[in-house]
Design goal:
This protein is an alpha/beta fold. It folds into 2 domains: 348 residues, ABC transporter type 1, transmembrane domain (ABC transporter transmembrane region fold, Up-down Bundle); 239 residues, P-loop containing nucleotide triphosphate hydrolases (Rossmann fold, 3-Layer(aba) Sandwich). It is built from 22 helices and 10 strands. The chain has a 6-stranded mixed sheet, with helices on both faces. Strand 7, helix 20 and strand 8 form a beta-alpha-beta unit. The longest helix has 53 residues. The two termini are 68 Å apart.
């Protein structure tokens, strides 16, 4: 229940929807019950007086709450004063009016509940997505993307439907049940007490049936998340799958997980569906017993027997008692699936970002002097990646990071925009410790161009203006020209309004990279971080991109990771990193004279070229 009430908190302000829903539902139940109760005066009007059961106008209802008695009195009085035909007209008009009002209020109650359902989904999905976006980059290295997508899309949908549907059932159905029982008691206390035995019996049987649904539902949600993740990987790597003739193997892998999910879903739904026919059978069985028992009383002319019209009305009302009882059992079985999905969603919501702005963190207004690493070490879990790194990057200088693959260059680069925090040591900018500054103000001073060209399925214009949404067309064009991108953009079918496709797949690698550079140029940050920005390009594209990078680095502080060492020989400082440690540091000329690792890397590359 704790999980359920926490999920329900996302419906706040719930009173905005709950109060009108309660009023509309109450009126809907009252008029809905009246619809069935009006069957008694209808039959009283149509049927001749029964032998031994003749009533007169003096036979009045015992109290104001004796609804059936009041209606019977109305019919008898009207038949005496107005005749049976006129009375039938009154009763029919009363039935039509009652049905109309019950349906109007039922529609309003459903409308308010749907508003609540949509409101809950909106808040829940917003909270989940906001929290995902706030999580540190390292979180996504350890989580399956498909699992996150499944929680944000599918699980949230299950939660909002189950929670609000259960809320609706828990309020409406017990209230409907109480009203029905009160009306039945007003007709016959003896029959009603006897008939209500079916409800606890039904509840006990249903609870046994649905006992295992929650565990099966959790397994089904996890299996669905695996399928979504696999689908995402298959679509992203479709070229590799086809290039290695792995289409059939990929289909088989997906099909196996699909079978697992389908089997779990089948078992769960079977249990859910079993509750409905069981409760319905028990209800029909009870109605049959009541018909047999009450009918025999009428046939034998027992003194405490109901009239035929009362008995028919009683059976009609009692047959509806099982509808709210059945809805309650269905809701009880369905809520397990919602709670299982809710626990997965709440688990994602409860995941706290590893890096948050500490209370009182200050904003970095300008980058004036230098960026420094002071004895920085970093671990991925138990594996040490960086060891005691000390480095200073002066404003306006270009620093290149080189070394063998896996040496820690990219990890060092990721520390600069504070994607991670060091295990020990400190990063400082203009003398301010990173942890004393807001993350947003640090990243606002930096532009990043990665080895992988990350574009969004939008226009070229919007991709360039991503870091500066209010940029003018002139500003975007200037940035594109600096990035050597203006020429190919204008030759595109729709120019700057051309859509780049999913992940930019409508463009070549060099074109994508130049748009990424234009995006960084437009943001105009004082510090540029270039992580092997030309490594995946052909020679012609590399030349164009390198020219764009040279333009980008003018009058800026730049930190570069480069696979072609010839492109960073102009750097002010070259830092050689191997196995997480700084091995060498200096200019190209100084490092060549030392005859160390850098010179060996230069010679190896020259030999390979």
């Amino acid at each position: 229940m704790k999980t359920y009430f926490r999920l329900l908190s996302f419906a706040k302000p719930i009173e905005k929807f709950a109060i009108p829903y309660i009023i509309a539902t109450l009126l809907s139940i009252v008029f809905g019950t009246l619809n069935l109760t009006l069957l008694i005066p209808l039959f009283e009007t149509l049927m001749p007086a029964e032998p031994g059961k003749t009533k007169t106008i003096s036979d009045t209802a015992e109290s104001l709450f004796d609804v059936t008695g009041q209606l019977r009195d109305f019919v008898m009085s009207s038949k005496i004063n107005n005749g049976a035909s006129q009375t039938l007209t009154y009763v029919c008009l009363l039935i039509v009016g009652s049905v109309l009002l019950s349906n109007i209020f039922r529609y309003l109650s459903q409308r308010y509940m749907e508003d609540l359902r949509v409101h809950t989904l909106l808040n829940l999905r917003k909270t989940v997505f906001n929290n995902v976006m706030d999580l540190q980059v390292g979180f996504f290295n350890n989580e399956r993307k498909g699992d996150i997508i499944s929680k944000v899309a599918s699980d949230v949908q299950v939660v909002q439907f189950t929670v609000t549907n259960t809320l609706q059932v828990v309020f409406k159905e017990p209230l409907t049940l109480i009203v029905y029982v009160l009306v039945l008691l007003s007709i016959s206390i003896k029959l009603t007490l006897f008939s209500l035995l079916v409800i606890p019996i039904s509840a006990f049987i249903i609870s046994k049936i649905v006992k295992r649904i929650k565990r099966q539902a959790k397994e089904a949600h996890e299996s669905f998340a695996k399928m979504i993740g696999f689908l995402d990987e298959a679509l992203g790597g479709i070229k590799i799958i086809k290039a290695f003739n792995s289409t059939e193997r990929t289909k088989d892998k997906f099909h196996k997980e699909n079978i697992v999910y389908s089997n779990l879903n089948r078992k769960m739904v079977r249990r859910q569906q079993l509750g409905s026919p069981v409760s319905e059978f028990l209800g029909v069985l009870m109605v049959a017993i009541i018909v047999w028992y009450g009918g025999n009383l009428i046939i034998s002319n027992q003194p405490d027997a109901l009239s035929t019209s009362q008995f028919i009305g009683y059976i009609a009302i009692f047959s509806q008692v099982m509808r709210p009882a059945k809805a309650l059992t269905d809701s009880f079985s369905g809520i397990h699936s919602g709670i299982a999905a809710g626990e997965r969603v709440l688990d994602l919501i409860d995941t706290k970002p590893a890096m948050t702005n500490k209370p009182g963190a200050t904003t970095l207004d300008q980058f004036e002097q230098e960026l420094t690493f002071e004895n920085v070490s970093f671990n991925y879990n138990d594996k040490q990646i960086l060891k005691d790194i000390s480095l200073s990057v002066k404003k306006g200088t270009t620093v290149a990071l080189v070394g063998p693959s896996g040496g820690g260059k990219s990890t060092l680069m990721d520390l600069i925009p504070r994607f991670h925090d060091p295990k020990t040591g400190a990063l400082k900018i203009d003398g301010f410790d990173y942890k004393d500054l807001t993350v947003e103000s640090i990243r606002a001073k930096m532009g990043i161009v990665n080895q992988e060209s990350i574009l969004f399925n939008d226009t070229i214009f919007n991709n360039i203006a991503f870091g500066k949404p209010d940029a003018t067309e002139e500003e975007v064009i200037v940035a594109a020209k600096i990035a050597n991108a203006h020429e190919f953009i204008t030759s595109s079918e729709e120019g700057y309004q051309t859509f780049v496709g999913d992940r930019g797949n409508k463009l070549s690698g060099g074109q994508r990279q130049r748009i990424c550079i234009a995006r960084a140029v437009l943001a105009n940050p004082p510090i540029m971080l270039l992580d092997e920005a030309t490594s995946a390009l052909d020679t012609e594209s590399e030349k164009l991109v390198q020219e764009a990078l040279n333009n980008l680095m003018q009058n800026r502080t730049s930190i570069i990771i480069a696979h072609r060492l010839s492109t960073i020989q102009h750097a002010d400082v070259i830092v050689v990193i191997d196995k997480g440690e700084v091995i060498e540091m200096g200019s190209h000329t100084e490092l060549m004279s030392e005859n160390g690792l850098y010179r060996r890397l230069i010679n190896m590359q020259a030999f390979n070229d």
